């Protein structure tokens, strides 16, 4: 096969030399040997037809190219494709690394100070120096293939358009989205495929069954975030941001459905989101209570440092899935996988993802978290299951420490704290 | 895109007004704006070609339609499609809500009194007032998208045929079945796709590779339950019901295969089912024994009421996946997911679903259940791992209570009970 | 449908009787009734066109055929398809049962004596009498559908080519590989489908998107193992075997990519493999340490015999997923599922399989293993969490036993053993 390709391309070369002498002389002879697929795909591309040659995107400084200093990033493409670039930059795709970081900030009681990892005080534009704790703990190889392979969509059009082919047929096919939008943490691809929308697409074509692009890139926009009412981690936007977005999405639904239908479907998704967030919050409180009582195994101060927070317990956006206690790891799955599946399943009208892969897992995970908490409390001499209950003074000490932590985290008011503290000390006197 | 659709449809409208004046006058002008896809799909349908207009299915009382009081359910379709309706009603699809309930009654020792949830005493026709404990515990939103979205197949032809398109190409495509027959509890879609049947369909077309419909809707029947020898939860039918069903399925197999081959393949499925049921039963016994000894954490009387059984332990058809103990939740997965995958995988000839997603998970889950039982027994001072063994009188008391529960559940005979009780009391005297 | 098939084939029969009288007279009349699909597929096959009739492959002794003594195995096909057979036999497909066994020997510290299960002392050719512990523990039905259905590729061309169709279109379609190369232990099919290669194939066809066959059966070879640098279980080959294999794979990559690109991509896979193997090894050491301290629950001597190793702990190639302790079952998942997904995901450039289905699961599983180890140690009175610490003499005894086991397994040298032993005895004297 390789041989016949070479024969054909050598012939093509002769033609090329005549029609675009610079290119042919400089790049093609070698690259037919070195990167045959790249040449082949470029030859089949709209760029080729329009006379856009190698040097237009790659420049003509071969030494620089070799050293990897002439990357064809978004700015190169944007010089011609201005509208697409502007739309892209306004979307979540345009802040993919930031999005990667932002996507985990879905905890109701999160430390607001952490906003500064991404934002100037009070500002909404993300800074460049974003850090993701999970990324920081990866080897460079896992970081490359496991993180940046997808998150580089921020600065590389090739993420979707491929490198040299840049075929619209490829990029308008929903399969193109599958490369990144799949897996345990955001199986949008899988849930679309087996939704009514997806099965209609497969059985009756795009006129009847909408694709990812139909709803998320309506009218060909590159702003894939139009109409979204939450962060990529599922934290609901405040209403002043959510309401206009919802209106945008309803306009898209209304291309096929009645306004009432669209409104009802999306409102159901909102309700599922609120309910699921409450389950998450219940689980998170259990973990913080165990931490207050020094019952996590191991406690944060017995582990390798968290890359951003050191020895502190982290259950927010920057939560890790390594070197934590078992109960935190259960919570990680719950938050990152089960919650995402439930709510994205509901918005995409997929029963199995909403219910079985989502809601049922959320609830079973909560059972597991409670069971582990019960074991840890028993170990610590607390609760009905404890074998050797602690004496009253020790118990009061512990409860005071818990109270003090809760007021610091803003879970209870100063007033509630004072009242509870008084009650505990009174109890101690009586015994 | 929306604009050009409107232009085309406005022109179409002019034509429509001439050929079906009532319809056009009443519905189309508005609905081209309000539900454009519905109009478009109806226009492409066999109904349109046959002159069947909106009012034929929806009636002409617009006020009623708006209030949702003129639903196009199965009775409306059945007025014309009589044979399909009769076949559908005779099938599991025709009792989808009941089936949803029935699908979980796969426990060998289940309380026969519970048959009355579905059936008149001694009767086989299900009653209307079926209740599903898991459904009763859902929010209305999860109930809608997570339960009824699929289980409404009982009364809605649109579940498979879609609302206005009603294209036979859609409904004969196996992808149509994927919307419901997928996921952790019954991945029939996934296991067919990667079975020999499914891969032959994908690689060589329907002449060589049979679809869901080829075997489960042979000769176009709407009775999808022909040839099935168990409940949807995998409880084997008694032989007087199973034997004629098996004959029916073998006739379907024989369209392609030799009688001997079909018989052997299905018999293998039966054997896998029997073996898998035994593993389930072993796990269930462990849980009931822990319950007899008050070792579940939490015990049923420490939880929110079960919607149908209150404070009783439920491991049968009505088992919940929320607010139970950890060991019950492990059993839920085992019964609802692992068992289903193993046996359905075997009947659909999918090695990975039978073995790895099924049988291996069943066995690993049994390990987990035994490990958790060991922890709970240790906590309760029972067994080799116990730290503070109870005194003999307490032990005897406990064992007598367990015995008494076992005879009540019918696990042992009155005679066995009397013999065991005498032995325990004798032992106590000797010590 | 059955009827019309019969009509057509009866007519065809008349023609057949004229063109190939022996066949028609002997087999077709009956088999049109008994195995209609087989006849139909053979009629559409290249064999039919070339005049290859039933007796050429099945022989003409009908009694033998009926008794299953005339199986059309690889030798029958190989008589004509010599090159394919030779290539197949040189590949992992040609030793599928042995491969099934070999695939699990991925433990760094495995007992080298076990090589003799497959190999003559010092030899590299596997013996016939291979035994797989997991297979030996299956019922014959699970063994059939769950093990041999795929592993029979060793001796049956029909595994890929199907029985009578033998169409090249089927076998060149990547879907054909999905039947076996899927599932939790080796989801090559799933990870290719959502990789860049797979999505390009789906969206732009085979000229742009390579299939399984493009890379693993380049130039149509039947040696699917060309270019592979590890056992099917992921144990890296020694460099004298790995280096030439890597060169072969790079030649395949170079059909499309630059040599530098291919080298970098594969080297990244190697790095991920090394890192993942280290995580596995850490987990395995924890289990052996618990075993040395008799803390597994249950210990190997309290379980049914391992089919090959009896009462010994097995964490290598022959590890079981039934009747083990909970912590071993966690390790089974880690080794057989998580490790495979991580490294195969990396080599196939699939971010979600490398990271979320792979690396994250590996690390979360390690958390779970450490948590369970902590519980078991607490139960055994060891470590910070222990409730009733053992006295010094008992502790010293135990540590000496652990040391002695470690030196026997080759984890520490004789010298280290002597030094540690002296230190322990000194400590005892001081207390």
TrEMBL record, chains A, B, C:
Gene3D superfamilies: Hydroxylamine Oxidoreductase, Chain A, domain 1, Hydroxylamine Oxidoreductase, Chain A, domain 2. Coiled coil: none annotated. Keywords: Signal. SUPFAM superfamilies: Multiheme cytochromes. It holds the Pfam family SHOCT. Residues 399-425 form the SHOCT domain. The keyword Signal applies. This is SHOCT domain-containing protein.
């Amino acid at each position: 096969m390789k041989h016949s390709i070479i024969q054909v391309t050598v012939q093509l070369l002769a033609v090329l030399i005549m029609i675009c002498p610079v290119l042919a002389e400089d790049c093609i002879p070698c690259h037919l040997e070195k990167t045959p697929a790249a040449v082949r795909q470029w030859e089949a591309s709209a760029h080729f037809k329009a006379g856009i040659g190698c040097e237009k995107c790659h420049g003509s400084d071969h030494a620089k190219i070799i050293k990897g200093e002439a990357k064809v990033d978004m700015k190169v493409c944007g010089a011609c494709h201005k509208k697409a670039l502007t739309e892209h930059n306004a979307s979540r795709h345009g802040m993919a690394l930031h999005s990667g970081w932002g996507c985990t900030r879905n905890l109701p009681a999160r430390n607001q100070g952490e906003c500064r990892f991404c934002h100037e005080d009070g500002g909404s534009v993300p800074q460049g120096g974003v850090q993701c704790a999970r990324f920081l703990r990866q080897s460079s190889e896992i970081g490359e293939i496991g993180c940046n392979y997808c998150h580089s969509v921020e600065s590389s059009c090739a993420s979707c358009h491929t490198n040299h082919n840049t075929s619209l047929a490829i990029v308008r096919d929903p399969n193109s989205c599958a490369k990144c939008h799949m897996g345990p943490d955001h199986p949008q691809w899988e849930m679309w495929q087996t939704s009514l929308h997806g099965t209609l697409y497969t059985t009756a074509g795009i006129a009847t069954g909408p694709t990812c692009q139909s709803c998320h890139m309506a009218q060909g926009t590159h702003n894939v975030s139009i109409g979204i009412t939450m962060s990529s981690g599922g934290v609901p936007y405040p209403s002043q941001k959510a309401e206009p977005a919802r209106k945008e999405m309803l306009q898209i639904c209304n291309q096929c459905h009645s306004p009432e239908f669209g409104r009802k479907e999306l409102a159901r998704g909102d309700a599922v989101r609120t309910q699921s967030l409450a389950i998450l919050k219940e689980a998170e409180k259990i973990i913080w209570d165990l931490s207050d009582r020094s019952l996590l195994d191991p406690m944060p101060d017995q582990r390798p440092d968290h890359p951003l927070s050191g020895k502190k317990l982290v259950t927010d956006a920057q939560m890790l899935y390594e070197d934590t206690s078992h109960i935190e790891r259960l919570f990680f799955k719950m938050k990152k996988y089960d919650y995402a599946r439930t709510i994205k399943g509901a918005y995409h009208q997929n029963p199995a993802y909403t219910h079985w892969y989502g809601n049922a897992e959320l609830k079973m995970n909560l059972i597991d978290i409670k069971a582990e908490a019960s074991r840890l409390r028993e170990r610590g001499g607390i609760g009905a299951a404890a074998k050797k209950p602690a004496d009253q003074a020790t118990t009061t000490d512990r409860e005071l420490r818990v109270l003090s932590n809760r007021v610091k985290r803003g879970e209870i008011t100063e007033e509630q704290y004072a009242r509870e503290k008084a009650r505990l000390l009174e109890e101690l006197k009586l015994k």
